[in-house]
Design brief:
Layout (H helix, E strand, L loop, with lengths): L11 H9 L7 E4 L6 H12 L4 E5 L13 E3 L5 H10 L4 E4 L5 H6 L1 H22 L2 E3 L2 E2 L23 H20 L2 E7 L1 E3 L12 H12 L1 E4 L7 E5 H13 L9 E3 L3 E3 L1 H11 L5 E4 L3 H6 L9 H7 L7 H18 L8 H5 L6
Parallel strand pairs: 1-2, 1-4, 2-3, 4-5, 5-7, 6-7, 7-11, 8-10, 9-13
Antiparallel strand pairs: 10-12
The structure holds 1,4-dihydronicotinamide adenine dinucleotide (NAI) and 2-amino-3-ketobutyric acid (AKB).
């Protein structure tokens, strides 16, 4: 499988052309850049646009090492004035808005979920209107709900989610479309499935089991899953996710026939994932099931999503399936567990330290 760096998103020739015509690359602010997806998005953007053109931001302190990779600023998306100052001071053209409270965390703290996901997004969108910015803010399969058709869920269908996360993401989608239509804000969004990554820990979602299982397999060869064995959900490996996000971010306006797109890469259940771990890692790997409140969330989400408009309009074309995800996750995480003297999950640095050829 291809490593992220060699995938279709890195046409350096195009960047060179842009530079030779005198157009400077866009300056991008990434919010929530220390989250599960943010750090990979930042490094991908920097490889393409130049380190100094991508400002990473979060309300947490970057780990040692992360700090030196390019500009980082503290930015609370709830503080509109501070956010505006960053946008003005850094000459920002595009905002990749990754700050969010995910599904399980949102049910644990609904007030925080509403605040960050709704007010934080409104701040970003309003500043985009004032300063003429392009905004990419991911949505999720969690924007669907219990009455949505579960198989091959289309872009346009019943959307009545019953989680704070889902409700706030539907609000985001509709408000983004409204600002696009009324004020010409270039808003773009994708409904991600569960995203699997070895590089940073997941941030409190219902699909976190599909990352935790690899850590548990390598650490103690057994895992207790918080979802039932047959719970099928759409998933994607982070490389496909970031490639697709870059494709949508850079797509010409005229290619877009809508502002929010489903994206689907593969789908599996916990028992299917455990079988694959047994096949590739250890025949003795044991899994048991202790469903908690996250089962109730997963039960309202699609089993598979239809994503033809994303493929047609801007080239969504995931290449990493379930077997490859298991192979990549085991290969990336195993050295860190072997090297980790202390018990428990290895540090983020240890996890990121061992690049593997995918
Ligand atoms: N990881 C996944 O499986 C999926 C993620 N998404 C979406 O992708 C985006 C990124 O998700 P992840 O990286 O997984 O989330 P995460 O939970 O790992 O990271 C979110 C980041 O937002 C930051 N944050 C929280 N409150 C903030 C505030 N007030 N101001 C600024 N930053 C704040 C957190 O410190 C954290 O670093 C989110 O919009 C999420 O809804 C959508 C579907 C699937
Ligand atoms: C699918 C998502 O949006 C996220 N991973 C979550 O489980 O909350």
């Amino acid at each position: 499988m291809l490593p992220l760096k060699s995938l279709r998103i890195m046409p350096r020739a195009a960047l060179a052309r842009q530079l030779s015509t005198g157009a400077r690359p866009p300056r991008v602010l990434v919010t929530g850049s220390l989250g599960q997806l943010g750090s990979t998005m930042v490094s991908t953007l920097r490889a393409k646009l130049g380190q100094e053109n991508v400002v990473a931001s979060d309300i947490r302190k970057p780990a040692r090492g992360q700090r030196d990779l390019g500009p980082f600023v503290y930015a609370d998306v709830l503080n509109r004035r501070a956010l505006e100052q960053i946008i003005v001071d850094h000459g920002i053209d595009w905002v990749v808005h990754f700050s969010a409270i995910l599904s399980a965390a949102g049910e644990r703290n609904p007030a925080l979920g509403l605040d960050v996901n709704i007010n934080g997004f409104q701040n970003v969108l309003e500043l985009a209107r004032i300063h003429g910015l392009r905004v990419l803010s991911p949505s999720t399969m969690g924007a669907f709900g219990p009455t949505t058709p579960k198989d091959m869920t289309p872009d346009l269908t019943i959307m009545r989610p019953n989680t704070i996360y889902g409700i706030s993401k539907v609000h985001m989608e509709l408000l983004g479309e409204y600002y696009c239509e009324k004020f010409g804000v270039d808003f773009r969004s994708l409904r991600y499935p569960g995203i699997i990554s070895a590089d940073s820990p997941p941030g409190g979602g219902t699909t976190d089991y599909a990352i935790d299982i690899f850590h548990a397999a390598l650490k103690q060869n057994r895992y207790t899953c918080f979802l039932r064995p047959e719970t099928r959900l759409p998933m994607a490996y982070i490389d496909d996710c970031i490639v697709g996000t870059m494709q949508l971010l850079e797509a010409p306006q005229e290619a877009l026939t809508q502002r929010v797109y489903n994206v689907h890469a593969c789908d599996f259940s916990p028992e299917e994932l455990a079988d694959e771990v047994r096949r590739q890692h250890s025949a003795d790997f044991a899994i048991d099931y202790c469903p908690d409140f996250r089962q109730g969330i997963a039960d309202t989400w699609p089993r598979t999503m239809a994503d033809e408009p994303a493929r047609r309009d801007w080239g969504w074309n995931p290449v990493i399936g379930t077997t490859d995800i298991v192979r990549i996750m085991l290969a990336k995480l195993a050295p860190a567990y072997r090297a980790s003297a202390a018990p428990g999950r290895p540090t983020d640095e240890a996890l990121g330290a061992e690049p593997v050829a995918l």
